[in-house]
Amino acid sequence: ATPTAIMVGVGKGAENNILIKDAESLELGYKVNAVVLDKTGTLTEGKPVVTDLHWLVSQDEASRLAAVLYALEAQSEHPLANAVTEHLKVNGGTPVRLDTFESVTGKGVTARYEGVTYLVGSRNLLAEHAISLPNELEQQALQLQNQAKTVIFFARTSPGGNVTPSLLALIAIADPVKVTSRQAVETLQRRGIDVYMLTGDNAQTAAAVAQQVGLAHYQAEVLPADKAGFVKKLQAEGRVVAMVGDGINDSQALAQADVSIAMGKGSDIAIDVAKMTLITSDLTSVPKALQLSKRTVQTIR
Ligand code: ADP
Ligand code: MG
Fold it and tell me: In its UniProt record, which GO terms are filed under biological process (predicted)?
C-alpha cells in the first residue's frame, strides 16, 4: 500500500479504537485466515471473582491458614491471585511473612512458611507434589468447572516429609465472558476465518467458555511457550495467523504471529510486543482491524 493509504488506515484505526504501530500489520491483516485467542482477559473480562472458598480443615485452622493463603496470592501478579486477595481482604486476617516464594509458570505459586511448603494452583501443581484429590472433591470441582469457573487448590506438604501432604481448600473463581466476545467470534467465522482459543486453564473450564462464545477449536493447559508453538504450527501449514492476547504469557505467541493484537487493558509486555492494540479491549475490533487492512491494500489496486 502507498504511504498515504497507510496513513489513512492508521487514522481510521484510531477512530475505531485500534492503535496500529506498524504498516506491516495493515498490509498483512487481510490475508489472515486463522485467529488465535487467549481466554483469560481476552475472551473473558479478566476480572475474576472468588465465588466459593471451601475449606477442608476446621474453622480454627482455616482462619489461621487464610493468612498464609493471603500472603501467597498477595505476592503473585496473576489475575486469579488478585481475585483471591480481594476476597481475603474482607476476612483473611493479616497476611503472614513468608520465608520463600516461587511462581510456577502456568500452574500456580508455592512458598515456604515455618518449615512447611504451601501451594496454590492447578491440579497439575498438586500432582507435581503428589497430592491427590478425593473423589468427592473431584466431583465438586467438575461441577464448578462446567459452570465455566476456574478451580484452584490450596495445599501443604513438607520437604522432609514431617507434614502429611494435604489439601486445605478448594477455591472457585468466575471470570465472565465479555458480552462482545461471541459476536466477534461469529463475525470472524462467517468470513471463513478459523478461530482458536488457547488457555492455561483446565479442559472443563475451557470447554465451557468455548461453548459460551461459539468456538469449536480450543486447547487447554497450554504453557506460554506452547502458545507460540501452536501459532508456529499453523504457520507451517501455510496459514496466516493473528494472535490476540493480553498477558505476559501471551507475549511469545504474539511475537511469533503474523499479526499481533494486544488488549488495551492487558499487561505492558503484551502491548509492547504486539503491533496493534485494541484500546477498548473489545474483540469486535479484531474483524474491524482485518477489514481495515483489506480496504487499505485495495486502495492501491
Ligand atoms: P491463562 O492462559 O488462562 O491466562 P495461565 O497460564 O496464566 O492461564 O494459568 C494457568 C493456570 O495456572 C490457572 O488456570 C491456574 O489454575 C494456575 N495458576 C497460575 N497462577 C496462579 C496463581 N497465582 N494462583 C492460583 N492459580 C494459579
Ligand atoms: Mg490472558
Answer: copper ion export; copper ion homeostasis
pTM of the model: 0.87
| Per-residue pLDDT at 300 | 53
pLDDT at res. 77? 85
Rounded Cα distance, 276 and 245, in Å:
11
Q: Within 6 Å (CB) of ligand 1, which residues are found?
A: 38-40, 73, 76, 78, 80-81, 106-109, 120-122, 150, 152, 199-201, 247, 249
Interacting residues of 107 by C-beta distance below 8 A, sequence separation 6+: 121, 122, 124, 125, 128
How is residue 37 written as a grid cell?
A: 485467542
**pLDDT tens figures, 196-231:** 999 999 999 999 999 999 999 999 999 988 999 999
Residue 132: other Cβ atoms inside 10 A: 12
Q: What is the ipTM of this complex?
A: 0.94
The closest ligand to the CA of 43 turns out to be 2
Q: List the catalytic residues.
A: 38
Q: Which of 47, 70, 80, 128 to mutate to test the pocket of ligand 1 (most atoms within 8 A of CB)?
A: 80
What is the domain partition of the chain in residue ranges? 3-45+177-298, 49-174
Ranges of residues in the chain with a pLDDT under 70 are 161, 300-301
CA distance 27 to 295: 10
Distance 176 CA to ligand 2 centre (A): 13
Ligand 1 atom closest to residue 223's alpha carbon, by position in its atom list:
6
The CATH classification of domain 49-174, taken from the options 3.40.50.300, 3.40.1110.10, 3.50.50.60, 3.10.290.10? 3.40.1110.10
